[in-house]
Design brief:
The protein has no helices and five strands.
């Protein structure tokens, strides 16, 4: 899915194939977003350049991402 914001296009695409979870997110310049990744997907690469303020809840891992492209997977 995409959304044309006043800052540019926000994109999000996720899939589960063969039990593997993948989520690609793109944010335009000068923006940030809060992302909640369900813990059941066991994403192993949350720590990436541009990711900050990570907190682990019971049902999800929450992080703040800045502008750019991100790929989260297990």
């Amino acid at each position: 899915a995409t959304f044309d914001s006043v800052y540019g296009t926000v994109g999000s695409s996720w899939s589960t194939k063969g039990g593997k979870f993948c989520w690609d997110i793109t944010l335009p310049p000068n923006t940030s977003a809060v992302v909640r990744i369900p813990t059941k997907f066991k994403v192993s690469n949350v720590m990436q350049k541009g990711v900050s303020k990570i907190s682990n809840g019971t049902d999800y891992t929450e992080c703040v991402i800045g502008s750019g492209s991100y790929h989260f997977s297990d």
